[in-house]
Amino acid sequence: MLISTVLSVKADGSGFTGPSIDDFFPPVLLFPGTPFEINRLMAIRILVVVLLVLFFWLATRNLKLRPSRAQVGFEYLVGFVRNGIVYEPLGERLGKRYEAFIMTLFFLILGMNLTGVIPGLQLSGTSAIGLPAVLAIITWGVFIHAGFREKGWKYLKDTLFPPGVPWFLYILLTPLEFLSTFIVRPVTLALRLTMNMIGGHMLLVLCFTATQFFFFTVLADGNLIGLLGVGTFAFGLIFMVLEIFIEVLQAYVFAILASIYIQLSVVDEH
Description:
With 270 residues, the protein is mostly helical. It has one domain. The protein is built from seven helices and two strands; from the N terminus they run αββαααααα. It has a two-stranded antiparallel ribbon. Strand 1 (28-30) and strand 2 (38-39) form a beta hairpin. Helix 4 (130-151) packs antiparallel against helix 6 (170-218) and helix 4 packs parallel to helix 7 (228-266). The longest helix is centred in the C-terminal third of the chain and has 49 residues, at 170-218. The radius of gyration is 24 Å and the shape is globular.
């Protein structure tokens, strides 16, 4: 009761304000009212793309047979994605064909996710549905294209009418296969990524906003309840480490699922 009373009153009487969904719709910074309107979220996305291009240019412009430590680290990272996410599900032939696409997915999503824990940015580029939805739609188009490229119209037959099933079950099975393959896959790709980034942002903002409130409002007024800010700050640091793990994991999950969906599109039976 005492803590809830403290949280309900600020020094200015306006009350404690936690994070809200409005955080993901920041005010416009540049070109308001035009198709080129840029808010904080769009600025973060542009910054990530520029930094990724710069990173890969710097990392690959002077590769040596006797690599430096930085080159070893870069090659290990790229090799992990190439071998573990691309070649393991797809094999060498298909892996070479879709390697650039899947690696782009992984590093783009990873870069966008990590901005959520960088001081000064503190908002993931994938925390609003627009970018995850675009990436999911592109992935949807790629795995459908892969199926038609490998099997032609037989791709639809194999997808919607799995072999070895009694004909009367197709009445139920075919609509389910259509929904699962062509609707559920892209929707879950986009929603899984977005919801994880939203949840992580809300949790971190709650912890650090509460810390600021306890230290600079409650404790500053001489109320020792403000020492609870030590706990909220500690929880914030713990959740930040957890959030970094989740951000890396979500980039991995999105990329590996893209590989798996491509592989499912080209196999003879699934």
